[in-house]
Amino acid sequence: MELLVASAVGILTAAGIYMVLRLRTFPVIIGVSLLTYAVNIFLFASGRLATDMPPILRDGVDAYTDPLPQALVLTAIVISFGMTAVVVIIALGAWLSCSDDYVDDPELHSGQQAADPNPRGGSFR
Amino acid sequence: MTHWIIAPVVLPAMLAAIIILAARFHQNLARVFSMAGCVALLLVASGLFWRASGGQIDVYLLGNWSPPFGIVLVADRLSTLMVLLTSVLAIPVLLYAIGSGWDMRGRHFHALFQFQLMGIMGAFLTGDAFNLFVFFEVLLIASYGLMIHGGGAPRLRAGTQYVLYNLLGSTLFLFALGTLYAETGTLNMADLAGRVAAIEPGADAGIRVASVLLLLVFAVKAAVLPLHFWLPASYAEAPAPVAALFAIMTKVGAYSIIRMYTLVFPPDLELTQGLFGTWLLPAALATTAIGMIGVLGTQRIDRMVAFSVIGSMGMLLVALAGFSEAGIAAALYYALHSTLATAALFLLVDVIRDRRKDAGVHLVDARPIGGASLIAGMFFAAAIAMCGMPPLSGFVGKLLVLDASFGTPLVVWIWSVVLGTSLLCIVGFARAGSTVFWKCHQEPGERNDPHTETDARNKPDPDDQHPATPVVAIGGLIALILAITVLAGPINRMLAATASQLFSPTPYISAVMGAQGKVITYGGSDGYAQDGASDHADDGTEGEGEAH
């Protein structure tokens, strides 16, 4: 269980960081999503791993799992979901109006852009 | 328990909803609501500031849950000071947005503006680390909308960068909070302070990681080198009133550093020795240097002002990084000053961009602008304040920073970097001012042509008609800069009291932890009913989860 959760967080984070370091918006957004999945699992584990235990106090039960991280994760999921939707829309707007989807400074690409016959190809190809 | 503490958060939130729902198609109604809200906010903030200025710490329990289970809002000297600064800044910025017509170049400016204020106020007032994250997200998501207000390709691209960078920052924030919760089992700041202090020296690996992760998050917000890359493009491309409001956003990062690293991880804490204390000051010095080098190096005035934001954040953190009382007081004064000065400069840049037409923000020769003497005078005053030349507030701020650095091991470095970068800043702003306002007699490329009809070109376009409101708004900001210069003495005494309150956190902790609210009575009245030994259930048990 510990190994599974820990390796899930680690692999998702590593993959997320790799994707974030790309130049185009689409892989970067995928990378950010992977990172938010990683952090959600990480938050979930921050209340210690406990299986098959209730988060709510009940009669006749004396072992519990921590309910607070579950509430934190819910908040984090909602926020990251909303934020990802926002960034997708803004990135789409930038892609449509700049006719390329580079994430970094536009001045760096002013030369390349002229040389590229199909600048809209990008990562969507 | 006074309910006024929640007003700075609730008032903008309600107003934003009203503006979206009721005033959606009524420009003037939206403007009136927004401005009335800002004035009301200023009154409430002044009241809270007055109440806290005697040293009283007010705690507001959301849902009346007893701390540390429910979320608390805390109004102490530092929080109310920052709330007051935000509401003071909001009025001229909003006046400028209305006067210049920026608010009508896209949709929902006023609603987003109010949501932005709500997030900033909440971040300053909250006493709960996870709630701080939530308010960061509120202010960020509003700022995403404001940042791309009005549209346009460069702005959308800069907006994408800004959003992505801040999403990564938020992810890092969650990692830090998860680590903190795993180590201490609480996220209430006052409770954290007690529990972090009680951690055994042998089991400190997790908390050391958490403290550094958290500082990295705040360093992203405060644009500390090497995490400052998001700032120049975002601030330069953002609409001017938005960039001026963003002047307070970097201070949210600085505020969070001050709050967390005096309360939860105080400088004399054994656990975190040799971590941020070692590298925050060099990073702050490098930030100051790179910001002011950027001021000198850039070819556009909007980027120049954005770089001066980085430089002034560096200066603020230089004062902060020693974590001494005098240092924090100096940092707070510098925060007041640099917020007002950068806001004034961003608005001035927009006026210049509007009036220069084709030349825009580029530092090239162009025809003179209309009303140049007034605009040049205000640019001169704001630039003097930003560079830290006497007689304006920047000079007082830098003097305090330098004075506070005595006794720290890197005092020689601090003096040389602060004074050296001031020179760079002066040269940068002098070059920009003289290019825009003095060397503006000829069209580009016609410099050596004796037959040019210079008479016609020397005069600004007579058709230019400029509304007065934007100039009044900028004048208001400059008047505020003057006011904090003239009142530097009383302000400093107040800030010294603020800093000393921060360095004796016992009243804060006892005010929060001693606040009486509803408790979870399952298994006893002490609230820690985790053992399940008792045999009666209580409905209130679920409340804590919902509260977050």
Automatic annotation (TrEMBL), chain A:
<keyword id="KW-1003">Cell membrane</keyword>
<comment type="similarity">
    <text>Belongs to the CPA3 antiporters (TC 2.A.63) subunit C family.</text>
</comment>
<feature type="transmembrane region" description="Helical">
    <location>
        <begin position="71"/>
        <end position="96"/>
    </location>
</feature>
<dbReference type="InterPro" id="IPR039428">
    <property type="entry name" value="NUOK/Mnh_C1-like"/>
</dbReference>
<keyword id="KW-0812">Transmembrane</keyword>
<dbReference type="GO" id="GO:0005886">
    <property type="term" value="C:plasma membrane"/>
</dbReference>
<keyword id="KW-1133">Transmembrane helix</keyword>
<keyword id="KW-0472">Membrane</keyword>
<protein>
    <submittedName>
        <fullName>Na+/H+ antiporter subunit C</fullName>
    </submittedName>
</protein>
<dbReference type="Pfam" id="PF00420">
    <property type="entry name" value="Oxidored_q2"/>
</dbReference>
<dbReference type="InterPro" id="IPR050601">
    <property type="entry name" value="CPA3_antiporter_subunitC"/>
</dbReference>
<feature type="transmembrane region" description="Helical">
    <location>
        <begin position="26"/>
        <end position="50"/>
    </location>
</feature>
From TrEMBL, chain B:
<feature type="transmembrane region" description="Helical">
    <location>
        <begin position="6"/>
        <end position="25"/>
    </location>
</feature>
<dbReference type="GO" id="GO:0005886">
    <property type="term" value="C:plasma membrane"/>
</dbReference>
<dbReference type="GO" id="GO:0042773">
    <property type="term" value="P:ATP synthesis coupled electron transport"/>
</dbReference>
<feature type="transmembrane region" description="Helical">
    <location>
        <begin position="471"/>
        <end position="491"/>
    </location>
</feature>
<feature type="transmembrane region" description="Helical">
    <location>
        <begin position="276"/>
        <end position="297"/>
    </location>
</feature>
<keyword id="KW-1003">Cell membrane</keyword>
<feature type="transmembrane region" description="Helical">
    <location>
        <begin position="162"/>
        <end position="182"/>
    </location>
</feature>
<feature type="transmembrane region" description="Helical">
    <location>
        <begin position="70"/>
        <end position="97"/>
    </location>
</feature>
<dbReference type="InterPro" id="IPR001750">
    <property type="entry name" value="ND/Mrp_TM"/>
</dbReference>
<feature type="compositionally biased region" description="Basic and acidic residues">
    <location>
        <begin position="443"/>
        <end position="466"/>
    </location>
</feature>
<feature type="transmembrane region" description="Helical">
    <location>
        <begin position="243"/>
        <end position="264"/>
    </location>
</feature>
<feature type="transmembrane region" description="Helical">
    <location>
        <begin position="132"/>
        <end position="150"/>
    </location>
</feature>
<comment type="similarity">
    <text>Belongs to the CPA3 antiporters (TC 2.A.63) subunit D family.</text>
</comment>
<dbReference type="GO" id="GO:0008137">
    <property type="term" value="F:NADH dehydrogenase (ubiquinone) activity"/>
</dbReference>
<comment type="function">
    <text>NDH-1 shuttles electrons from NADH, via FMN and iron-sulfur (Fe-S) centers, to quinones in the respiratory chain. The immediate electron acceptor for the enzyme in this species is believed to be ubiquinone. Couples the redox reaction to proton translocation (for every two electrons transferred, four hydrogen ions are translocated across the cytoplasmic membrane), and thus conserves the redox energy in a proton gradient.</text>
</comment>
<dbReference type="InterPro" id="IPR003918">
    <property type="entry name" value="NADH_UbQ_OxRdtase"/>
</dbReference>
<keyword id="KW-0812">Transmembrane</keyword>
<feature type="transmembrane region" description="Helical">
    <location>
        <begin position="369"/>
        <end position="392"/>
    </location>
</feature>
<feature type="transmembrane region" description="Helical">
    <location>
        <begin position="412"/>
        <end position="430"/>
    </location>
</feature>
<feature type="transmembrane region" description="Helical">
    <location>
        <begin position="330"/>
        <end position="349"/>
    </location>
</feature>
<feature type="transmembrane region" description="Helical">
    <location>
        <begin position="32"/>
        <end position="50"/>
    </location>
</feature>
<keyword id="KW-1133">Transmembrane helix</keyword>
